[in-house]
Amino acid sequence: MSSNEVQNPVNEESNEVLEQKYFQSRPETYNGAERDLYLWTQTINDIDVRVKIPKTIKKGKEVKVNLTKQHIKVDIIESNTFKTIIDSDLPWAIRAEDSTWSLVPGEYILISMEKALERWWENVLVDEKKINLKNIQPEKSMEDLGQEEQMKIHQMMYDQRQKAMGLPTSEEQKYQDIMKQAWNVEGSPFKGQPFDPSIVESMRKAE
Predict the structure, then answer these.
(1) CA-CA distance, 139 to 158, in Å (whole number)?
(2) In Å, how far from its chain's centre is CA 198?
(3) Among candidate residues 117, 138, 159, the one where a domain is terminated
(4) Are residue 157 and residue 134 in the same domain, yes or no?
(5) Is the pLDDT of residue 150 over 70?
(6) DSSP codes, 136-174
(7) Which of 84, 109, 138 is the last residue before a domain boundary?
(8) Mind listing the pLDDT tens digit for each residue in 30-87?
């Protein structure tokens, strides 16, 4: 082997760290990885796999997903016949009866697998390149958090969804409820008028 062919373990390790850092920055590969055919992410309890598909795959009947205790098989329609794109054992067992899949037309098949045991996986398929678990962030799952912490997280997620849809957050809803009760009381300048949330919102911002 020539000197140019000698691998540098330090560079190899740093590349591995950088690659996983990139995976950690994306929700679909967080604590997982991206491979040629799919992307995967995990928590201590479950794994989500996004299998890449052609834009021509639009309907659920054009896809077959078979999950057993320690095996996964995925077929898609190609030239009017089913073609297998994934057929592999899993490194660890899953609860197949509690695992599901759905289709995002023209983009990917989302396969959600529930792990039989609480543990971090290094790969999804037995012949897949393994990730280094030292480079992931094994945080607590929601079930491990206290009730108050869970409520705060659920409220934060709810508020994010409401904002994304242009709807009031939980705090804004509480303010509107209070103002709605006071809308028609004696002495209110709005008494007798239909309740207008836009007026309430402008008043709230002016405070």
Answers:
(1) 21
(2) 34
(3) 138
(4) no
(5) no
(6) S--PPPGGGS-HHHHHHHHHHHHHHHHHHTT---HHHHH
(7) 138
(8) 999 999 999 999 999 999 999 999 999 999 999 999 999 999 999 999 999 999 999 9
Examine the domain organization and report whether 72 and 120 are in the same domain. yes
Q: Which band of pLDDT confidence, cut at 50, 70 and 90, is reported for residue 101?
A: very high
Nearest in space to 119 (alpha carbons), one of 150, 90, 87:
90
DSSP state of 130: P
More confident residue, 197 or 102: 102
Q: Which two tokens stand for residue 46?
A: 């479950």
The reply to whether 186 and 88 lie within a common domain is no
Please tell me whether residues 123 and 152 are part of one structural domain: no
CATH number at residue 79: 2.60.40.790
Distance CA 121, CA 111 (A): 16
Domain count, the chain: 2
Instruction: Return d(Cα 17, Cα 12) in angstroms, integer.
Output: 9
Average pLDDT, the chain: 84
Whether the per-residue pLDDT at 143 is higher than 60: the answer is no
pLDDT at 120: 94
CB 200 within 8 A of CB 207: no
Residue 172: which domain range? 147-205
- Would 90 be classed as within a structural domain? yes
Alpha helices in the chain (DSSP H): 9-24, 147-164, 170-182, 197-206
Helix axis angle for 170-182 and 197-206, nearest 10°, is: 110
